[in-house]
């Protein structure tokens, strides 16, 4: 905006100098220079000091009218300065400045040359000065309207976002309350019955059947209630599925579906069951890392999965081709999934290759029996 304003001022200054040289040269040699200097000063001061600029150009024009040689260049700048006053000042009645300016010039003209100024053509002075102010007022009203409209749109968007956030929070609280209400009772029953079952199995094994049946029924009730409550979170028209969440056991199928992409897969350690959240996070991390390698690599990647004592580690490496690293949201998602499962993800270039390394907890569970 600053550069544009400077270019406009430069263009106006050049026009003033050109008009001063061509239109004011019929009188004497010093007049064009004085008019050009005065005009350039008005051009460069009209934005920051519009009222002093109007006083300056009015004073110069008054002198030329008094000597019966009105300057057309200064008259042009009078309308331009009135435009700036109306546009940039906070005066409630900026037209009064234009009226006072035009009246002063008219009175000086009547005194200096009554025969020339006492005619209808002199009213053009009021039209020119008032026209500049009218254009400035129209531009100012237009800018104020656009600013108000933009602010209303911003406030409406902010209000809409706040309302949506409030509704989401209300819905979360409602679901949390319903889950607590419908699940807490059944879980308490299961806990009590499980304790009773442990006692009955030791003392009277033949009577354990009814107790275990109560536990089974309560468990079914919990599952049904959770299903009914969580069902409201599904999108309209979303088909239900009975397929279990994907895990590390689905990695071979994932690799088989990557057509045209060469993945070298190695697995160390004895595969075992890992916590469900870690299993799902591991699969999604492998999926996202291979997708990024396919998109930004050279068509080849290495995938290594290792089962250690209490962790499972995943490492995906591919050669960097310099085609960009995307938006970074995929890496953020992998880190969030790993953090939710109690693990971590590191990713970045290393030796001309891009490496994603994830560590997720996978403790070995032992079945405890009582003697």
TrEMBL record:
Residues 139-166 form a coiled coil. The chain crosses the membrane at residues 49-67, 95-112, 118-139. It catalyses: ATP + protein L-histidine = ADP + protein N-phospho-L-histidine. One of its GO terms (molecular function) is kinase activity. It is an enzyme of class 2 (transferase). Keywords: ATP-binding, Coiled coil, Kinase, Membrane, Nucleotide-binding, Phosphoprotein, Transferase, Transmembrane, Transmembrane helix, Two-component regulatory system. Gene3D superfamilies: 1.20.5.1930, Histidine kinase-like ATPase, C-terminal domain. Its EC number is 2.7.13.3. The keyword Ligase does not apply. Residues 171-236 form the Signal transduction histidine kinase subgroup 3 dimerisation and phosphoacceptor domain. The keyword Transmembrane applies. InterPro entries: HATPase_C_sf (IPR036890), Sensor_HK_TwoCompSys (IPR050482), Sig_transdc_His_kin_sub3_dim/P (IPR011712). PANTHER family: NITRATE/NITRITE SENSOR PROTEIN NARX-RELATED (PTHR24421), NITRATE_NITRITE SENSOR PROTEIN NARQ (PTHR24421:SF10). This is histidine kinase.
